[in-house]
C-alpha cells in the first residue's frame, strides 16, 4: 500500500498526477461519501458535494503544505463543502439552514438509498435538532469513529471543546429519544 507522503508526492508531480488522483479517490471516496452524507442526508446531494470536494482537492493539492494529515485536510474541505451546500440551499429556498436540514430529514424516509429503520430515523431526527457544530462532532465520533485528535485537525478546534460538544450532543440525543 502506498504511503500518504508517496501519494502526495505523486499528486504534485505532473507525470503521475492523474493516476495518483484516481488512487486518492479510490482510497477516500467511501469515507468522504459517508462523512458528507451524515451532514446533507440525501444520496443525490451527497454525490454532488462529493464531486465538488474532489474537484477542490484536485485544484488545491499543490497548496497543501502538509501541516496536517492529507485525509484531515480533505475532510475539512468535505465538511466545508457540505456546510456551504446546506447554506446555499437555505438561501435559495429563503429558509434557515436548520429548516433546510429538516427538509432533508423529511425526505430521508422516501430516499431509496436510506436503509435505516424507525430507530435510525429517530436518531437522525435527534441529530438534526443539534447545533451544527455538535452535529458534526457527533457524526464524526459516533458514525465514523474519528479520534478527537484527528477531529481537532479537521475542525480546527481543541480536543477538550470537541469532547464537551460530543458529551452535550449525546445528552441532547438521549433526551430527545426518551421523549419521542
Average residue pLDDT: 89
Radius of gyration: 17 Å
Give the low-pLDDT segments.
none
Largest β sheet strand count, sense and barrel closure? none
Distance between the termini: 47 Å
Annotation, overall tally of beta strands: 0
Q: What is the helix content?
A: over 70%
Q: What labels would you give this structure?
A:
180 residues; mainly alpha; 77% helix; 0% strand; globular; RNA_pol_sigma-70_dom; RNA polymerase sigma factor
Compact overview of the structure:
This protein is 77% helix and 0% strand. It is mainly α and 180 residues long. Keywords: Sigma factor, Transcription, Transcription regulation.
Describe this structure in words.
Residues 24-90 form the RNA polymerase sigma-70 region domain. InterPro entries: RNA_pol_sigma-70-like, RNA_pol_sigma-70_dom, RNA_pol_sigma70_r2, RNA_pol_sigma70_r4_t2, RNA_pol_sigma_r2, RNA_pol_sigma_r3/r4-like, WH-like_DNA-bd_sf. Belongs to the sigma-70 factor family. ECF subfamily. It is a single chain. By secondary structure, the protein is mainly α. The relative contact order is 0.10. The protein has helices at 4-11, 17-40, 43-60, 70-93, 97-108, 118-128, 132-143, 148-155, 159-179. It is built from nine helices and no strands. The longest helix has 24 residues, at 17-40. Helix content is 77%, strand content 0%. The mean pLDDT is 89.
Write the layout of secondary structure elements.
Blueprint: H1 4-11, H2 17-40, H3 43-60, H4 70-93, H5 97-108, H6 118-128, H7 132-143, H8 148-155, H9 159-179
Helix pairs in contact: 1-2, 2-3, 2-4, 3-4, 4-5, 4-8, 5-6, 6-9, 7-9
